[in-house]
Amino acid sequence: MRRSAAPSQLLKRSQFRPPFVGGVAKRPCLEVKTPSGQSPGLSKPTQVRSPKDILSLIQTPGSAPLGNCEHPHTSDSTNTALTDDDTLEKNIVPDDSPSQSTISDQTVSPSDKLYLQSSYSVSNSNNLVPGRDFVRPGHTQSHASARRPLGQTVQPGAVWSRQVRPGVTPPTGEENQEPPQTKYYSVVWCKRSNKKHKKWEGDAVLIVKTRSVVLKDTEGREIGRGMGYKLADLASLQDGSTLPVGSKEVEIQSSISAESFASGSCFIGEMEPSPATQPLVRPRPKPKPFRLPTLSRPSHTTENNRSNPTPLFDPARPDALVMPRPPSQHQWQNSNSVVVDVVVDPHVSGHLRPHQQEGVVFLYECVMGYRTHDTNGAILADEMGLGKTLQCVALVWTLLKQDPYHQRPVVRRVLVVTPSSLTVNWGKEFTKWLGRSRLQVYIVDQNNKAENFGKQTISPVMVISYEMFIRCAQAIKELKFDLMICDEGHRLKNANIKTASLLGSIGCKRRVLLTGTPLQNDIQELYALVEFVNPGVLGSSASFRHVYEDPIVASQQPQSTEEERQLGTSRAAQLNRITSMFILRRTQEVINRYLPAKSEYVVFCQPTETQLEVYHRVLGCRGLNSCLAAPNGTDTLSALMTLRKVCNHPALLARGADEETVKSELIKEVAAFLPSHLEVGKYEETDSGKLAVLSCMLWALHESETREKIVVVSNYTSTLDVVAALCKRYSYTHLRLDGSTPTHRRQQLVDRFNCATSNDFVFLLSARAGGVGLNLVGASRILLYDLDWNPATDLQAMARVWRDGQRKKVHIYRLLLTGTVDEKMYQRQIKKQGLSGTVVDARESQRVHFSVQELKDLFTLHSDTACLTHDLLQCECDQQGGQAPAASYTQQDDTTHRACQLGSTSTTKSTSSTTTMDQLYSWHHLAPPFSSAVVKDWCLEAASDFITFIFSNEARTEVAPISSPSL
Length: 967
Ligand SMILES: Nc1ncnc2c1ncn2[C@@H]1O[C@H](COP(=O)(O)OP(=O)(O)OP(=O)(O)O)[C@@H](O)[C@H]1O
Ligand SMILES: [Mg+2]
What we know:
Structural class: alpha/beta
CATH architecture of the largest domain: 3-Layer(aba) Sandwich
Number of helices: 35
Helix content: 25-40%
Strand content: 5-15%
Oligomer: single chain
Bound molecules: adenosine-5'-triphosphate, magnesium ion
Number of strands: 23
């Protein structure tokens, strides 16, 4: 049923109290200012970076190189982990008894010994001889450690003759000598004793600086320290010399370069890339050893093509996607085989975009173990919508059918683990790109039990949700999968959670982890994900902490020394170097040209009188003020949530609106003074500015001839109730997907909505339940009713509509209630992006931390402004989409910025598609009156009575032809 009267006519204009006079925004008096006069919410970045920021330096291709680090590099290039020598030298003791304080005396664990004993030194990986040279997977050890096998005794005399005896007075004039450079040695150590036969207990690294030494075990942990040595004694250390260090004694094995120490490779080992990326030369076939003929053969191998194998698909076709051939070392291990080209089925490869072709090659090299020695894992961290699924489909199909040695296919069984809302979608993607005749997928559900997978022969690919996997882990273990793909794999970032440990235990070495969420923000999480795909490449958890995490974090502390900063930077560079061998991330830029144009709007909605009244009341609450006096996580989030509910609809604070209202003390306090007309389920547009705007927009869209559909996203299911009530009131057909939607219903809802012939007009989506992975290209408009603290969550939601497969121009709206916490959250988002150039993880919002000053700012209502964010930009534009006076323009980073810049926020370029402060300057800034010439969006224009300000931006893209599978 269509209504003739627009909601804007139905709403009584008198119920709104305009925050500005005559449509011209007054510049507000800012309530909180920093000493420099800037808002705390938008202040200039300091030089000091958080650990997260340095981790943004650990970038994958396409991001800022480490050289962009802001730390100044001085000419003093000495790297050291020692503390200030001045302090040490104050404690110098008489020559005869050097003071050697042992910080910790830790013994080496059996597993460490195993590792140490199996270490080797490799100079040329091509010349490895299996059996002779063996190494801890993926590592070469750059220092010549363990020359003396552990546990071996030493003949007296042999080394003692060169012992440095502390206390022997050196030649005079030592004090005038230049302090020597820090030196590093590979040593073996044992407990100090007078025994003639030493039994060495472990390898270690000795750091020698001026008169002091530090001993670190192979995990980078400090196990001894000594000081007060003679300069000459330390200067004369050489291979075979011994030295007492605290309660231990060490014997020098060899010296280590400063570079090896700076990168940490003397602890973790150097991970050498395989020469796979080098041009591959067809190897000369090796003479075949005698073999009895066998009767069982792989189906695609005949006697004829065995001796003269041909690739499954023609590698000479101009559009053929040919996989790299095995590197020579790999061929050594398969010395009986002839190499044949592996070519991706043209049926699939014809659809791959260039970045997807690159991705398939990358994944292939990783899982085949071509890129690194003995590791078979990869992380594909492409931004959302780049087609990670298709890249995996191409990989799986190739490995199921082909083998570079023309023996049997590389994999026989493939396991795909996904969030529950995506299992069916994976099945659909396989069918979309391969067709049913090539491959069928076994999706585990009520009808298809995991344990029955082994009894069928039709499908080699099992798709299962994480939840179901936990229940069937034992059965799956027994099925023996050869390749495992974990979609939305950032959920495995905590190695302690059950899913991660169970998945890790199923004994499948080829592992691919997919995630659209950046990994670089938490170094421990990065470790957990890498450890999952390539166990051991970053060493043990303890060595990772000592070698990478601690120095990187230390280098970011405000009080860090130049040496610490240098060490942190080189360790971060090394970590980046290692991880880039198996982590690939591309940003949305690579796909933009395939997508239709996109218009984005940040819409500032005018608060209603009821909202202003309730908001003021909440700010005066006892609960909120005690939270300011003694901030603690729970109360703060509860206070913020209460304010956000007022922004969405004040009736959400009525008793019983949702579970939270029952739990929160603050909401109980607020409920007592709520205006009596606010009741659960009675969600009038006249009480909420945002709902009024949404109502007008939906009406305009529904009345139009364009037959467009819209997705409305919220972080709260109770807010989805509000919108659902609105849809019901105006008889708009709508679907809803939130946490309570059963798994099997989710894809059905998505399919129904995407179907061009369906009448469903609105799709109500919970950001948490449906934010990741879903394709909602049936809609061309998406409206975010509220924001998340984390820009990544909002980005994820927006990407549901503006993604491959979308053919219409996309409109993205974000609603904020003017002058409230909504605006503050938005400012935090764009500032965060601007500072770090990378987004934080999706669950970050649970760990939002605020200073008291920030809280005060968040708890301040600015009721006298049309747009606080624009005021803070101090923009002098005409607020009609025009630009500021020419004289006040500045040029920065190839982008035209307005003169209104609030200081330069950052020189770091955003690698993501979230708007940054800098970018916002170049958007259109629009204040009322909103004529169609200015707004250029009839949908928004219909709601203009209830809008105080708009930021808008049009991303025009050169649309490339859209390829679709020929099904
Ligand atoms: N080369 C292509 N040509 C046409 N459509 C494509 C292509 N690649 C992917 N698509 C389509 O683009 C959509 C997005 O792909 P997909 O779901 O794999 O993205 P994703 O990288 O997994 O994103 P997210 O991180 O959001 O899950 C899908 O509908 C997919 O079928
Ligand atoms: Mg996906």
